[in-house]
């Protein structure tokens, strides 16, 4: 079992690697420390095997960050035992869509993350094909049409879970919404507005792109702007992934703000193309 002192040492080491980490994750750390003994003993399985306190390398720091975040997520969703609303048997899986004993559908679990629901790794570059496969699988089993002959409560729970799965899928499918959600899980958000945190040079670039798009007279001109925008989004995706892996949340936040602007331009390109065709 991981003792409190061991966990404190781990947090101190993490803070040395990234000074902003402790401040950014203060709430998460506090919740983790107060978890039950079972949660503490099962949520941190790989720290000792992946840490090298004397000579931490790049790979070590990356693995440490990934394990820390995923462990905190696990701790959030496993500290409260749940029982089936119908037969009262203990639900031994998280997430629990159905009771293994009486087979009835369960209500969505409060506080569970979209990554857990969709059985995805907590990473910005998740496998979208796996995500889509999981989505179809869950909707086949949870869709309200399957419960039309069931009790009112089962119909309500199936509708709730089906809607929750759909929201999780839509959020994690696209890089922008996925990244924003990851920042939200870390207690951060990107403010509304077009100039929040953006420098004048970047805003000027956006203005020029928008003006060029407004003045485009042919589909070829609009497509050229669209291709350039896709290239910028691809570069931003790589940079955001690197920042999140390093635990540099402020850098990831700034990059996601830029991605938000270029994603808006991408949508405008689609609208322009529909006008020109």
Automatic annotation (TrEMBL):
GO terms for cellular component: mitochondrion. The keyword Cytoplasm applies. Its main location: cytoplasm. GO terms for biological process: [2Fe-2S] cluster assembly; protein complex oligomerization. Pathway: Cofactor biosynthesis; iron-sulfur cluster biosynthesis. Residues 112-177 form the J domain. Acts as a co-chaperone in iron-sulfur cluster assembly in the cytoplasm. Also mediates complex formation between components of the cytosolic iron-sulfur biogenesis pathway and the CIA targeting complex composed of CIAO1, DIPK1B/FAM69B and MMS19 by binding directly to the scaffold protein ISCU and to CIAO1. This facilitates iron-sulfur cluster insertion into a number of cytoplasmic and nuclear proteins including POLD1, ELP3, DPYD and PPAT. This is Iron-sulfur cluster co-chaperone protein HscB. It comes from Cottoperca gobio (Frogmouth). The gene is hscb.
């Amino acid at each position: 079992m991981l003792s409190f002192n061991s966990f404190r040492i781990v947090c101190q080491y993490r803070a040395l690697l990234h000074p902003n980490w402790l401040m950014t994750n203060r709430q998460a750390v506090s919740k983790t420390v107060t978890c039950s003994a079972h949660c503490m003993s099962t949520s941190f399985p790989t720290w000792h095997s992946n840490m090298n306190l004397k000579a931490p390398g790049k790979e070590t720091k990356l693995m440490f960050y990934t394990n820390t975040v995923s462990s905190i997520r696990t701790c959030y969703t496993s500290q409260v035992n749940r029982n089936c609303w119908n037969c009262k048997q203990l639900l031994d899986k998280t997430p629990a869509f159905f009771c293994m004993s009486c087979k009835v559908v369960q209500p969505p679990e409060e506080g569970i993350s979209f990554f857990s629901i969709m059985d995805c790794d907590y990473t910005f570059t998740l496998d979208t094909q796996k995500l889509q496969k999981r989505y179809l699988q869950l909707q086949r089993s949870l869709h309200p049409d399957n419960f039309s002959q069931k009790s009112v409560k089962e119909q309500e729970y199936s509708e709730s879970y089906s809607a929750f799965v759909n929201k999780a899928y839509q959020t994690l499918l696209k890089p922008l919404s996925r990244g924003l959600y990851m920042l939200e899980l870390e207690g951060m958000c990107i403010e509304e507005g077009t100039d929040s945190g953006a420098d004048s040079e970047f805003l000027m670039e956006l203005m020029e792109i928008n003006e060029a798009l407004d003045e485009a007279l042919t589909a070829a001109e609009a497509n050229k702007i669209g291709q350039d925008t896709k290239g910028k989004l691809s570069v931003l995706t790589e940079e955001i992934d690197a920042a999140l892996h390093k635990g540099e949340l402020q850098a990831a936040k700034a990059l996601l703000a830029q991605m938000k602007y270029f994603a808006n331009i991408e949508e405008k390109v689609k609208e322009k193309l529909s006008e020109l065709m």
